[in-house]
Amino acid sequence: MAEVLRAGLLGVGMMGRHHARVLRELDGVELVAIADPGGDPHAVAGDLQILPDIDALIGAGIDIAVVAVPTRFHEDAALKLAAAGVHTLVEKPIAHTLEAGQRMVDAFAAAGLVGAVGHIERFNPALQEARRRIEAGELGAVYQVATRRQGTFPARIADVGVAKDLASHDVDLTAWVVQSDYERVFAQTAFKSGREYEDMITITGRTKSGVIVNNIVNWLSPMKERVTVVTGEKGAFVADTGTGDLTFYANGTIPLEWESVSSFRGVSEGDVTRYAFAKREPLRVEHENFRDAVLGQDTDVVTMEQGQRTLTVVEAALQSARAGDSVVI
User: Fold this and answer.
1) Average pLDDT over residues 71-98
2) Are residues 182 and 47 both part of a single domain?
3) Hey, which residues does 277 pair with through a beta bridge?
4) Are residue 160 and residue 109 in the same domain, yes or no?
5) Which of 1, 109, 126, 218 ranks highest by number of CB atoms within 10 Å?
6) Are residues 272 and 288 in the same domain?
7) Are residues 289 and 265 in the same domain?
8) What CATH number is attached to the domain comprising 229?
9) What is the pLDDT of residue 252?
10) Angle at which helices 16-25 and 282-294 pack, to 10 degrees?
């Protein structure tokens, strides 16, 4: 493989334009080709011509590719890239159906290529810091993860509902933070904006390791919220992935003297710490992990298998909402 990886980008819309910027700034990678049937709405091509389709992109002679087109087009592009021997990062969710996702997983495994999915929240500095500290035992046993991802409707999302577009982030980050897959889910959805897809979902469940999970996601809130709360034996971590802040609320160690309170045998309030740490751009960290995985290093890249697992949980949640019953995964 060449010393510098030749990169191709399919799709330069809302996410694609950011991929273009990061690919251009990444050491060891050169963005050599861009393809988008819809042209270049954000004028990111620079001195590159905009190629018409995936076949033209492959024809440019690339080592790695980023696929940032609408979800229903992921499978076609990914299978062609796998056949051409190109390591590929597709935006999340992995695909529009589980069958399509599985074909992608199989194709990249059979070709011995790195196939990755852009579940970017794993690379958020607040969650990376939380995960490091949980692994170091600072929380003790983990009891519960609660996430809230709420905001206004993004007009650009036309082909999936809020579950696949947004809840997939929370399912992936939750399983990653606690290092255990979802085992059972119960979900409820609402359809309030006159579209065929849900715009609100609440998923409650449990991981195989016994952690209780709750994910609240919608496109119907006038305020934007991106919060993950991990509660455990020694306190709680609150990660704001919008700002990258991580705060630790410790359980108190000071004995309570006030009688009416001290009869309650739960935890008490202790110190609150907001950590200071380097806050790197998640997309850049994601790209570095993908690049290093292609170079054969052990990284935190989100594999297609993991992306497929996340889609499986989201589909189970949607099935649960339709049936009004919990679903074992």
Assistant:
1) 97
2) no
3) none
4) no
5) 126
6) no
7) no
8) 3.30.360.10
9) 87
10) 60
130 shares a domain with 46:
no
Encode burial over 77-90: b for 16+ CB neighbours within 10 A, e otherwise. Answer: bbbbbbebebbbbb
Q: Can you give the CATH number for the domain in which 97 is found?
A: 3.40.50.720
* Secondary structure of the chain in HEC code, one letter for each residue: CCCCEEEEEECCCCCHHHHHHHHHHCCCEEEEEEECCCCCCCCCCCCCCEECCHHHHHHCCCCEEEECCCHHHHHHHHHHHHHCCCEEEEECCCCCCHHHHHHHHHHHHHHCCCEEEECHHHHCHHHHHHHHHHHCCCCCCEEEEEEEEECCCCCCCCCCCHHHHHHHHHHHHHHHHHCCCEEEEEEEEECCCCCCCCCEEEEEEEECCCCEEEEEEECCCCCCEEEEEEEECCEEEEEECCCCEEEEEEECCCCCCCHHHHCCCCCCEEEEEECCCCCCCHHHHHHHHHHHHHCCCCCCCCEHHHHHHHHHHHHHHHHHHHHCCCEEC
pTM of the model: 0.93
Its domain, for residue 137, covers: 122-280+310-328
pLDDT bucket at 62, cuts 50 / 70 / 90: very high
Do 54 and 176 have their domain in common? no
